[in-house]
Specification:
about 220 residues, alpha/beta, Glutaredoxin, Thioredoxin-like_sf, transmembrane, TXNDC15, membrane, TXD15 protein
Amino acid sequence: GSGPAAAQAREQPVLEPVLPAAAEEQNGTDSAKAPKVNCEERNTTGIERFTLQILNVSQDLMEFLNPNSSDCTLVLFYTSWCRFSASLAPHFNSLPRAFPTLRFLALDASQHSSLSTRFGTVAVPNILLFQGAKPMARFNHTDRTLETLKDFIFNQTGIEARSDVAVTEEDWEGPLPSVLTKGIDWLLLFSVLFLAGFVMYATVCTDSIRWLIPGQEHEHQE
C-alpha cells in the first residue's frame, strides 16, 4: 500500500530486531561454554587401577572403539624413537588417573601405518579424541604437558580432571616409554637411497636425461 500509514508500517520492523539480537548473543555465549563433545562417562565400579593401554602390532584400534556408544577415548599416535613422544609419555601416562571415566589408548604409528594414513597422522605425537569410533577433536598444542592435556579434555568434553593427580616417578617408567629407543627410520633411508640412485642414473645416462629437458630434443636429433 501507500500513504503515511503504510510507510510507518514499513519503518517499524527495522527497530524490532534490536532486543532479540542481544538475546542471540547471550545464547551464543551459553553455547560456547557447553562441551563440544557429549561423552558418556564409563562406570568405574570395581576398577582399582586406571592406566593407559598400548596396542601391539596385531591389535586393531577399531576393535577397541564401539561405534554404537557415546563413550570417549583419547588415542595417542607415537613412535619409540621420537623425542617429542618420549617427553610426552609421563604426562600421558598420568591422564587415566586424572580422568577415570574416560579411556586412553596409545599405538606405535610406525606399526599401524594404515591407521596413521586414515586419520591424517603426518607427524608424531598425534592425539585424537574419539566419540565411539568417530574422531571428534585433535590436540594441536606444542606444549604437551599434563595441564595442557587436562585443559584440552575439559574444553572438549566438559569433564573436570581430578585435582590430586600429578606426574609421578611411575609415570616416567611406563607404560608408555619415556626413554628413546634406537631404531631405523626406513622412510628416510628409502628417500636417501632413491635420491642416490637417481643421481647415479643421471650421471651415467646423461643423454637419456636430456630428453626430459624441454628444448633439448631437437639439439639431440641434430
